[in-house]
Specification:
binds uridine-5'-diphosphate-glucuronic acid; 13 strands; 2 domains; Rossmann fold; 3-stranded parallel sheet
């Protein structure tokens, strides 16, 4: 595995756990030394234990020695980052190409070279051109995209719905099938396709899921105005197997390291081929605008004067079971209320965030009770399990506390019984 970021570390560890000998390579020596002390460099529930188990069994090796790893491997996964180029929607592939050039330098015999990172259509062809220019013939280039969700990555690796392998070589398909056999035995579909299809399947899947979320978020806006419960609509629609019930939960707006980046990456692929992917473009715009609705709602809840009002955010990451802040809506909401001179507190199970260090009047507390004490408004931003059964009046010591629930963790009737002013997403009386 070249790169021990999220994809490389989880995938490498899980491949070791199903019996393979895996070298995880990274040129960041501090990462490698942390991993060699048996500790994970990322937050992912359950990962530490599997790392330690396979590290002790000597199936999982962490190293900065690329030559050693390449010489000892038959299959090489490229798992480096593929961010968007700064200020554009285009995917920056220079980490991928740099890794490929370094890997092939050390290789003597035939190897399978796989892109696991999310890469645009045509990348495998580009890699082949690089190999040709370097006069390297011993490589078979494959696309095998990952479908891991942060916070659920180990389960997603072990029980995938499908394994997508793009190749133009039958022998390679057989080797890949053998590698994934333990997962296929448990019911995963092994889908052989062209490399370009495999590359597009990854973007299409993420863009479709982002569309589903954005669709339900916009319907939630309608439900709020039309006195309808969005959860009934999600359930009613989702029970049609053609639609499916998952990813129909309304929320603050999708975030994270994948959907925002991959929707834009797909648009730029469309542009490259002169195809207007108008639906995906609208999804990106709608998702970006969504945060304005939430800040408007906060204005309505607090009224004109934010000064000396205590506003507490419960959870600030883009979703639970991760410490990832990338494209989290809290990054816009917290600076907004701080600018209005509210006293902002936040509590997150994964600790303090550097992103809020320089925000005025914004304090982190590792104790939820301190974060919530005397709060005027609690914003339930991320749906961690520990936020699902809170006694808000006891927690805040404020009978008049108001709740803005961005994840619909509570019911309106429960809150009404407790005489708590409660605002949620896409429900009757949500305003
Ligand atoms: C996503 C995909 O789900 C994975 O299949 C894929 O492998 C990964 O991107 C990637 O490309 O690496 P991830 O970003 O970890 O995984 O998180 P998701 O669980 O998909 O959630 C993404 C965002 O959508 C979050 O902000 C979440 O709160 C939001 N969401 C999700 C909703 O608002 N409603 C839903 O019903 C589901």
């Amino acid at each position: 595995m070249i790169g021990t970021g999220y994809v490389g570390l989880v995938t490498g560890t899980c491949f070791a756990d199903i019996g393979n000998k895996v070298y995880c390579v990274d040129n960041d020596k501090s990462k490698i030394s942390k991993l060699n002390s048996g500790k994970s460099t990322i937050y992912e529930p359950g990962l530490d234990e599997i790392i330690l188990k396979n590290y002790n069994a000597k199936r999982l090796i962490f190293t900065s020695n690329l030559s050693l790893a390449v010489k000892n491997s038959d299959i090489i996964f490229i798992c480096v980052g593929t961010p968007n180029k700064k200020g554009t929607q285009t995917v920056d592939l220079h980490y991928v190409f740099k890794a490929i050039k370094e890997v092939v330098k050390f290789s003597k015999n035939k190897k399978i070279l796989i892109t696991k990172s999310t890469v645009p259509v045509g990348t495998a062809n580009e890699i082949e051109k690089i190999l040709k220019n370097m006069k390297k013939k011993n490589f078979d280039v494959v696309s095998n995209p990952e479908f891991l969700r942060e916070g659920e990555a180990i389960r997603d690796f072990k029980y995938p719905d499908r394994i997508i392998v793009g190749s133009n070589n039958n022998r390679t398909f057989k080797i890949m099938e053998r590698l994934y056999q333990p997962l296929i035995n448990k019911g995963a579909m092994f889908f052989k396709t062209s490399r370009r299809s495999a590359e597009l399947i990854k973007y299409a899947s993420n863009a479709f899921l982002a569309t589903k979320i954005t669709f339900i978020n916009e319907l939630a806006n309608l439900c709020e105005k039309a006195n309808i419960n969005i959860e009934d609509v999600s359930l009613g629609m989702g029970s049609d197997v053609r639609i499916g019930s998952r990813f129909l939960r309304p929320g603050p707006a999708y975030g994270g390291s994948c959907f925002p980046k991959d929707t834009k990456g797909l648009i730029s692929t469309g542009d490259k081929f002169n195809v207007n992917l108008s639906i995906v473009k609208t999804v990106v715009k709608s998702n970006q605008n969504r945060v304005h609705l939430h800040v408007k709602r906060i204005d309505k809840i607090i009224g004109k004067n934010f000064k000396n009002k205590k506003i507490t955010f419960l959870g600030v990451t883009f979703k639970p079971n991760t410490d990832d802040m990338r494209d989290s809506t809290s990054l816009k909401m917290i600076p907004y209320v701080s600018k209005k001179e509210a006293n902002v507190f936040y509590y997150d199970p994964t600790g303090e965030k550097k992103e809020f260090k320089n925000i005025r009047n914004c304090k982190f507390s590792k104790d939820i009770k301190i974060a919530c004490k005397n709060a005027d408004l609690i914003i339930l931003h991320t749906e961690w399990e520990e936020f699902k059964s809170l006694d808000f009046q006891k927690l805040t010591k404020n009978k008049g506390v108001k709740i803005y629930d961005l994840r619909n963790l509570y019911t309106f009737s429960d809150m009404l019984r407790k005489k708590i002013k409660y605002y949620s997403i896409g429900r009757p009386n949500a305003n």
